[in-house]
Design brief:
Layout: H1 13-19, H2 28-39, H3 64-69, H4 71-82, E1 109-110, H5 112-116, H6 121-124, E2 128-133, E3 141-144, H7 145-161, E4 169-173, H8 178-190, E5 193-196, H9 203-213, E6 217-221, E7 224-226, E8 229-231, H10 233-240, E9 249-253, E10 267-269, H11 270-276, E11 286-287, E12 291-297, E13 305-310, H12 312-326, E14 337-338, H13 345-357, E15 362-365, H14 376-383, E16 388-391, H15 393-402, E17 417-421, H16 427-437, E18 443-447, E19 458-459, E20 473-474, E21 480-483, E22 495-501, E23 511-512, H17 516-524, E24 531-539, E25 545-550, E26 554-557, E27 560-563, H18 564-572, E28 577-587, E29 591-600, H19 609-623, E30 632-635, H20 650-658, H21 674-686
Parallel strand pairs: 2-15, 4-5, 4-6, 5-12, 6-9, 9-10, 14-16, 16-17, 17-18, 29-30
Antiparallel strand pairs: 1-11, 2-3, 7-8, 12-13, 13-23, 19-20, 21-22, 22-24, 24-25, 26-27, 28-29
Helix pairs in contact: 4-12, 7-8, 7-11, 9-10, 12-13, 15-16
The structure holds 5'-O-[(S)-ethoxy(hydroxy)phosphoryl]adenosine (WTA).
Domain AMP-dependent synthetase/ligase: 119-503
InterPro entries: Ac_CoA_lig (IPR011904), ACAS_N (IPR032387), AMP-bd_C (IPR025110), AMP-bd_C_sf (IPR045851), AMP-binding_CS (IPR020845), AMP-dep_synth/lig_dom (IPR000873), ANL_N_sf (IPR042099)
Keywords: ATP-binding, Ligase, Nucleotide-binding
Length: 687
């Protein structure tokens, strides 16, 4: 692997041009923004937060331009030095975005659980690996790397005993308890592919994910508990897998009480089997490009897709971005405080794989930001000595609403870096985070990324001050561009466009499970040579990036990603519904709320509206989960705005839902323009 530290090329404006980061000739401001970034690298930072040295392995010792020019060497060097490989790789980046191919370190071999556990044992066996902040704040538990190892090895042996082999998919339907980490790493240990399904998903949603993954083994718990409320997880799973012979074993962890029905021959209490199993299970040697996990996520169509992440590149990228964005060092003693759920990508990358790869303890937060009081987060920060903190704008907005009296400054002295993820952070929330939580001093990292990218792509550099609401800078080796409708790159500053990526990074998803064509069509087909993110963005006059939100039919509700088509499909299962169109609308707490325009069949037009609204909400909860429950159900009794060819004009519905009706754009192509007036009048009654 070529050494990056020996490379000391002075990158010129011509290089900028060649990389097409921007046309430097026409954009002095953008060039300056890149130079500022480079000036700010730790060795040169004077009087600013210089940060400790990460040795010569961390990409922040490179200028951004170097990181792009030598991106393959940079990632290769980081991967070689940071991970423990069974067999070193000789191939580095064999990606080809124009063909939808992403491949890194192909001939290397390693095991993810070995990287997250075994290699830390000789020196850090008794260090805390997991800090479990249970729903009840008095019952927190700490699990050392040694205990993590014992549990993961035993569970891996249990999985094997239930017939799980390399490459098999295991569905994990668990709340935030140590078992979820044991399960993920036990799968990784034996080369099985985990598919974690968020515990807030309904039985119907879990069933379709189990079916798609073809899992024979499912891991769950008797119940989950959140904000003091017991949620019957096993019961939901039982409904999900009713008459589904494909599921041969249900391994059930005990969380609340063992008082759940167990189907003999299928369901077992897994702790009993773990106690009897050996605490030693040899880790499989996996290819760097072997799948580590599937994670289902929403797109523009109704069917969630199982994105496939692989082993070597993913671990490299999650560890590297954790270091770069959060200034985490190997074996740092403070646990990393990511409050996300492992049911989503943030939990995979920054609760589990990133921190544990670096031998850093990690927080598992089982509760909610407001239970038992809105000081919960700050109590957790204080009690567990957290200095790097990561949450969502929705949580922040909820806490802002609860009032500043709940923020105990003295408890937050340690906090130095405050991250935000999952949805755009509004300027007010950003400022509150900075001033009230961070005491004006902490660094705010608004991090943009996606399930598909595996790790953070755009975030402010540690040495920069940041702007309220801007994700700011591409991370080392990341090359974002803005495209116009024809797919041409938009150069210069003070411009907006579709956000795309022009180079493959190691942590990107490799395919959609069992549907590679869908992967290619969704992300690479629209504009050849680019990965299309589905987000829009603006590059401001200083060259900094602002994410403006999705440009497709995906919405972000409390940071949970949801396809509007999924909600429409659910609504359409109700016999009264003729057609439904669902859009997002601005919501003060959730970021986006769910606004459903529903046209009823003539036979149902006089049904009691409130009763029907309740039934429809219930249907969505049952088909998807409680988090997808509609905020507004608007019966569009005179119809939906359509083009003459019968296509619903969502652009207009989005504006109506947002109450943004001054400028509806061109409505001349509508087949029945009068429905718009009816919809506006009704919307104003509803909101
Ligand atoms: C949105 C979550 C604005 C975006 C890691 C993206 C953001 C989608 C930000 C991915 C941010 C994520 N600012 N929007 N900092 N971070 N998003 O797959 O629309 O659950 O495409 O991954 O969330 O959601 P996902």
């Amino acid at each position: 692997v070529p050494s990056v530290s020996t490379v000391d090329s002075v990158l010129s404006k011509a290089c900028l041009k060649r990389l097409a980061i921007a046309d430097a000739g026409t954009s002095q401001a953008l060039l300056k923004s890149v130079e500022d970034l480079d000036d700010a690298h730790p060795k040169q930072a004077k009087g600013r937060r210089a940060g400790r040295s990460h040795g010569d392995i961390l990409p922040v010792t490179h200028t951004y331009l170097q990181s792009v020019a030598q991106r393959q060497q940079m990632f290769a060097e980081y991967a070689a030095k940071t991970l423990t490989w069974r067999k070193a790789f000789s191939k580095v980046d064999e990606s080809d975005l124009s063909e939808g191919v992403v491949s890194w370190f192909k001939d290397g071999r390693l095991n993810a659980s070995e990287n997250c556990i075994d290699r830390h044992l000789p020196t850090h066996a008794h260090r805390t690996a997991l800090v479990w902040e249970t729903d009840n704040p008095d019952h927190a538990q700490k699990i050392t790397f040694q205990q993590l190892s014992d549990n993961v090895n035993r569970l891996a042996n249990v999985l094997k005993a239930h017939g799980v082999k390399r490459g098999d998919r295991v569905t994990i339907y668990l709340p935030m308890m140590p078992a979820i980490v044991y399960s993920m790493l036990a799968c990784a240990r034996i080369g099985a592919v985990h598919s974690v399904v968020f515990a807030g998903f309904s039985d119907t949603a879990v069933r379709s994910r189990i079916e798609d993954a073809e899992s024979k083994v499912v891991i769950t718990a008797d119940n989950s508990i959140r904000a003091g409320k017991i949620i019957p997880l096993k019961k939901t799973l039982d409904a999900a897998i009713k008459d589904l012979p494909q599921v041969e074993s249900v391994l059930t962890f005990s969380r609340v009480a063992r008082d759940v029905p167990m189907q003999s021959g299928r369901d077992v209490f897994v702790e009993d089997e773990m106690a009897a199993a050996s605490p030693v299970c040899n880790a499989e040697s996996m290819g760097a490009e072997d799948p580590l996990f599937l994670l289902y996520t929403s797109g523009s169509t109704g069917k969630p897709k199982g994105l496939v992440h692989t082993t070597g590149g993913y671990l490299t990228y999650t560890a590297m971005t954790l270091q770069t964005v959060f200034d985490i060092h190997k074996y740092d003693s403070d646990p990393f405080g990511c409050f996300a759920d492992c049911g989503w990508i943030t939990g995979h990358s920054y609760v589990v794989y990133g921190p544990l790869t670096l031998g850093v303890g990690t927080l598992l937060f089982e509760s909610t930001p407001t239970f038992p009081t809105p000081s919960r987060y700050w109590d957790v920060v204080h009690r567990h000595e957290i200095s790097k903190f990561y949450t969502s704008p929705t949580a922040l907005r909820t806490l802002i609403k609860a009032g500043n009296k709940h923020v105990h400054r003295h408890k937050l002295k340690r906090l130095s870096i405050l991250g935000s993820v999952g949805e755009p952070i509004n300027a007010d929330a950003w400022q509150w985070y900075k001033d009230v939580v961070g005491g004006g001093k902490a660094h705010i990292a608004d991090t943009w990324w996606q399930t598909e990218t595996g790790g953070i792509m755009i975030a402010p550099r540690l040495q920069t001050l940041g702007k309220a609401g801007a994700a700011m800078h591409p991370l080392p080796g990341v090359v974002p561009v803005l495209l116009d409708a024809q797919g041409a790159e938009i150069q210069g500053v003070d411009v907006s466009g579709a956000l795309a990526l022009k180079a493959a990074t190691p942590g990107m998803a490799r395919t959609v499970f069992k549907d590679h064509q869908r992967y290619v069509d969704t992300y690479f087909r629209p504009h050849k040579g680019y990965y299309i993110t589905g987000d829009g963005a603006r590059r401001d006059k200083d060259g900094h990036i602002w994410i403006t939100g999705r440009v497709d039919d995906v919405i972000n509700v409390s940071g949970h990603r949801l396809g509007t088509a999924e909600v429409e499909n659910a609504l359409q299962t109700h016999p009264a519904v003729a057609e439904a169109a669902v859009v997002g609308f601005p919501h003060a707490i959730k970021g986006e709320g769910i606004y459903c325009f529903v046209n009823l069949k003539d036979t149902h037009k006089s049904t009691d509206a409130e009763a029907l609204q309740n039934e429809l909400r219930q249907i969505v909860r049952k088909e998807i989960g409680g988090f997808a429950s509609p905020d507004v159900i608007h019966f569009a009794l005179t119809g939906l705005p359509k083009t003459r060819s019968g296509k619903v004009m969502r652009r207009i519905l989005r504006k109506i839902a947002a109450g943004n009706t001054e400028d509806l754009g061109d409505t001349s192509t509508l087949s029945e323009p009068q429905v718009v007036g009816d919809l506006i009048a009704k919307r104003n009654e509803l909101l």
